[in-house]
Structure formats: structure tokens, C-alpha cells
Amino acid sequence: MSLNSASEARAGRAQAGPTVTGAEGGATAALPATRALLPEFGGRPARGPLQLALLRLRRAKLALIGLAVIAILTLVAVFADAVAPYGQNEIDLFSITASPSSAHWLGTDELGRDELSRLIYGGRVSLLVGVAAALVSTAIGIVVGAVAGYYGGWVDATLMRLIDLVLAFPAIFLLLIVFALRGGSVLSVILFLGLFGWMWLARIIRGQILALKAREFIEAARAVGVPDGRLIVRHLLPNVVAAIIVSTTLSIATYMLAEATLSFLGFGVPPETPTWGNMLNAARPNYTTHPLLAIAPGLTLTAAVLAINFVGDGLRDAFDPRGGR
Amino acid sequence: MLRYTVRRLLGAVPLLLGVAVISFVIMQLAPGGPDALFARNGRMSQEQLDAIRRNMGLDRPVHEQLLVWLGNLAQGDLGTSYSQFRPVTAVIWDVFPNTVLLMAAGLGLSLVFSLAFGILAARRQYGFVDNLTSFVSYFGLAMPVFWFGLMLQLLFAVRLGWLPSAGKYAAQGGGDVWDLLKHLVLPAFTIAIGSIAAWSRYVRSSTLEEAGQDYVRTARAKGVRERQVVAGHVLRNALIPLVTVVGIDVPLYLTGAVLTETIFSWPGMGRLFFDSLTTRDYPVLMGTLVLGAVLIILGNLVADILYGLLDPRIKYG
Fold first, then answer.
1. What distance in Å separates the CA atoms of residue B191 and residue B146, rounded to the nearest whole number?
2. Are residues B121 and B230 in the same domain?
3. pTM for the predicted model, two decimal places
4. Is residue B315 domain-resident?
5. Are residues B16 and B164 in the same domain?
6. Which terminus in chain A has less CB density within 10 A, N or C?
7. Domain boundary among B74, B108, B126
8. What is the ipTM of this complex?
9. B219 located within any domain
10. Residue at which a domain ends, from B74, B106, B134
11. How close are the terminal C-alpha atoms of chain B, in Å?
């Protein structure tokens, strides 16, 4: 169940990228005229090692750009007090919903708060929620996946049914009910997002551990009497660390989007705390006349998510022993 | 295949039961309990409150309430709405077709655009179209759905004035199919953007993968026309897995429905759910939650079964 399920599943799917680039185009017997109309699929000549390396470099370049963007956003968020021109809730009564000026670069919102400053402070909460929720869900996912995969049998069957059950719920409905009826805080948003988003990682880890369990080195470790806990932590988990890192990285972006979604609907982080989602929510009554109030936080969030996705994809390529692409 | 279908259908029953029980528990955990709406009303006397509780069965022990809820649910009775005082099924049924219309329109757009993008991109791997497509899909996946909706609204409704910004029909002089379509365009694109982005990448990679298979080379070698190779061999096989993907993305569409319907004031299930949060209409919340879960389970089920039917290589035990 999740806001994430779709995009996480997608993350898994994107993995099944094209590894085959056949060289069978030459075998086509079609007439030249037809061939011009219908360029054949996969009919390009196989790539040389140099071309492959260039392609990989280009993807790595995207990942590096992503990393740079994240680094900048993180630095700005950490040093928000020094960077932001105004306080996060500092009100300028003489400029309410003001247009951009030298005093307020991005203008001010409906209460006279500086938009740029709130954008900077908002990055703090948005990034914090994304990272913390990703850590929570990764922790749960590792434990459930490892236990299910290692012990198998009824433990596995029970945990897998549990995952089916959680995935059957529309996450957005559940999260909204929780936060609308109980009220939200930064901490509760982190916990509940993590609590509803661990299922895909758990499935991935379970599958990999099931496969690893049959290998000789595990048999050997068992034979010399390594206890279960140590076997899982020292021998099995290090072998699935690539999947964990990639999935955790990508889920940071997912949770940042989820936080923004909840806050935008008015049921996430309390409205006085600046987050990109809260700013979008606050912008709604005025955005037709002051579009910048909606454009700025949305673009920033999109850039952050894009950057994280680039890094995640780059990591996946880096970990993929087959290289390719 | 029949045995598999029956087994999957039976397997969905305990899942539905779990969904129903958990929905009930969540509502019990809500602060103030299910009758908070009435209890907070200062003009209500204790006798009236007791009468309401008795009427709704809220005075009975919790486990009894659960059994009643499950029993009623099995008969298709979701209780009575607290804010509209009519059966929840009627309340939901009033708006459900609108959500189906919105989702169907979004699904149609997604299929058309993702097939076009995916196939064009696969035609020349790493070519211009391919790069453009992957750029667009990266953006489509990174944008918050609701922000995309707001931007569409801002551009096409507020600035350009080409399309209406909200609702299903114009307040005056509307009401025909043309009016409906005009109101549908922006919400449909909003709900579809995520799946257009995801599916086009998917179509691209599965097309490329199939195009490299031996049977495609065989087809070419025996002189099958290129058009036939592409349409009859490559695409037929490349698109089978898309069925699964569409089934899995039901939750995405439910999230999209809540956001899209809120932004564009589209009178559907997502908006009903959102409004019920504000009015604390517990029976409606439970009803929509259960209905959402049913749609998700159904989506997965249909996808799995169709996948088996379309691909004869798949054998289920």
C-alpha cells in the first residue's frame, strides 16, 4: 500500500533495462523503400567497449549532477540560519503577497513571510522527512525480508501474507485518515510514511536471501556452527547491500513527494512549519495572482526528487556487475 | 488456468476479510470514537446521544460491532452516512461513476502516450527521440502530481483561458458531452502523468528486449516483412507484461484521484473521501477505504489472470 508502491515497483521494473542490442538488422530482406519507412527495432550494430564506456560515463554524469544538487540543497538546509535572509516565520507587514523585489527575491506569501527564506527552511524539513522515513522503512524492510527469507516455512508465509495485506490498502487513504483524525507532526509523518513503505524492499531482500541461502558458503558457515543471527548479519546481508542502498536512495525521493502530498492536502506536517508541501498548500488561494508562490516550491521539490532519482539510478548501474547499457 | 483463477479468487477472500477488520480497527482508534461528531454537538442532550448510539449500534460491545460490520459488509451494506443520513453505498454510488470516468480517461491517455513514446524511443536507442522521452519521463516521475495539476490549471485555465479550471460541467449553458470533455481534459492529464512517464520507459525497454530475441531474427531471416516483424512479433510479445504493470498501478490512480479531484473539484470518490475527513463521516471513510482496497486487489487479480491468458508460456500449478 503506498504512495510509493507504484514508483517503487517502477524502480524495480526500470532495472529490467535493455541488455540485448542485437546485430540482426542486416538479415532483413525488406526492400530499401520499406526499410526507410520502418526502421527496424534493435537493428543497430553491437556497441564496442568504447561506446559502452561513453554511455556509462554519460549516465554517471547525470548521477554526479544529481549528487551536486543534493549536496547544495543539503548544505543550504543545514546552514539555513546563515543563508536565509529572513527568519522562517518572520512577518513583514508592509509587504504581503508582494512581488519579487531586492528585499524579497521571491516575493512574500499571504502573511508577509519571505518566500525564499521559507523555501530554504522548508528544505530542512522536507529533506529530513525524506531521509528519516527512508531509514525507518529500510530498517523494517531489512528485518522482515531477512527473517522471511532465512527462516522460510510458516514464518515466511505469514510475513508474505502480511505484505499482501498492507499492499492491498490504498496508502493515501490510510495516511490521510491517520493524520486527519490524530493531527500530524514531523515525527509522526516520518514514522507513518516509513511504516507504510517497507514492503517492496522486504520482498526484494527475501528473494535474494532465499537464493543465497542455498549457496555453499552459507552451508559452510552453518557447518562450523555460526549462529542464525550472526549468519544473517555477517554472511547474508552484506550480499544484498547493493539492493538496500539503491532502494533506500530512491525511496528518499518517494517520501519527500509523499510528505509534500500530505502537507499539500493540509494533513501532514503542521502548517506553521515550512515544508515545500505546506508552502504549496498555502499558495493555493493566491496562486492565480501570485503564481511564483506555487511555482518556486514545486520546482525545488521536482529538482530535488530528480537529483535523488539520478543518483539512485547511477548507483544501480554502478552496482550492476553486468555493466551494459 | 481455471484452477489457478479459482485459487486466486479464493485467496482474495481472507485478504478482503483482513482489509475489513483493519478498517474497522482504525476507526475505533480514532480519537473520540466513531460518535465524536455527535458528542461534540453542544445542543445535543444526553438522551438524544444515547438514542443515536443505540440506533447505530454503538452501545454494543466492540466485538459485536465488528461482527455486525462484517456481516453487513458481506451483504453489501456499508452503514449510514453521518453527514448525509443515507446509505453509504448510495453516497458512494452517486460519485463513483465520475471517478471511473476520470480513471478511464487517464488510463486511455496513458496507454496512447506511453505506447507512442515507448515505441518511438525504442526505434532508435539513444537517438534524439529516445533521449527526449527519457528526459520527459524522468520529469514526469519527479513532479508532484498535484503540482503538475496546479500548473496545468494555471496555464490552460487561468492564463490562456482555453479550458475550464474546475468542475464537471459549466454552471451555465453546459451539460452536453462536449462540455464534459472540456472539463475532463486537464484532470485526465493530471491523473495520467505518472503512468505516462513510467509506462513509456517500460514499453521502451521491453520492446528493445524482445527485438533482440532469436525468434525475431528467425522471422527476418525467413523474409517476413519488417512491418509484420514489428507489429506481429515484437510488439505482441513486448506488450504482454504491460498488463501486469497496469494492474499494479491501481494505487497510483487512487492517489491521483484524491489529488486530481481535490484540485479540479471533480465530483468523484477521492473528493468524497477528502470531504468526509473534514466532516468526520466515519462510515463513508470506511466505505471508501474498503472500496479502494477492493479495486487494488481486483487490479492485481485481473492482471495476473490476463497475463497467464495472453502468454501461453506461463504455466500456473
1. 9
2. yes
3. 0.83
4. no
5. no
6. C
7. B74
8. 0.85
9. yes
10. B74
11. 8
| Total domains, chain B | 2
Residue in chain A lying closest to B250 (CA): A6
Between chains, do B212 and A168 touch, taking CB under 8 Å as contact?
no
pLDDT tens-digit map of A124-161? 899 999 999 999 999 999 999 999 999 988 999 999 99
Q: A14 pLDDT exceeds 70?
A: no
Domain ranges in chain A are 63-323
Distance CA B271, CA A284 (A): 17
- pLDDT, one tens digit per residue, over A27-59 is 333 334 444 344 445 445 556 667 766 777 677
pLDDT of residue A10: 40
Cell matching residue A193: 510514511
Residues of A in contact with B264 (CB under 8 A): none
Q: Are B234 and B275 contained in the same domain?
A: yes
- Type of residue numbered B287: G
The yes/no answer on whether domain A63-323 falls in CATH 1.10.150.20 is no
Taking contacts as CB-CB distances below 8 angstroms, the residues of chain B near A165 are: 15, 18-19, 22
Parent domain of B62: 2-74
Those of residues 276-295 in B touching chain A at CB distance below 8 A are: 277-278, 280, 285, 288-289, 292-293, 295
The 8 Å CB, 24+ separation contacts for B278-281 are: B278/A180, B279/B37, B279/B82, B279/B83, B280/A181, B280/B36, B280/B37, B280/B82, B281/B37, B281/B81, B281/B82, B281/B83, B281/B84
Find the CB nearest A13 among B19, B245, B258: B245
Q: Is there a domain that residue B43 lies in?
A: yes
Q: Which of chain A's residues have a Cβ under 8 Å away from the Cβ of B298?
A: none
Burial of B190 (C-beta count, 10 Å sphere; 0-12/13-18/19+) = buried
Identify which has the larger pLDDT, A249 or B248.
A249
B133 close to B117: Cβ distance less than 8 angstroms? yes
- State the pLDDT confidence band at A248, using cuts at 50, 70 and 90: very high
Mutate which of B114, B135, B136, B147 to test chain A, going by most A C-beta atoms within 10 A?
B147
Length of chain A: 325
In chain B, which residues have pLDDT < 70? 31-42, 170-175, 314-317
In a domain, B317, yes or no: no
CATH of the domain at B248: 1.10.3720.10
A288 contact residues in B (CB cutoff 8 A):
154, 158
**Cβ–Cβ gap A16/B229 under 8 Å:** no
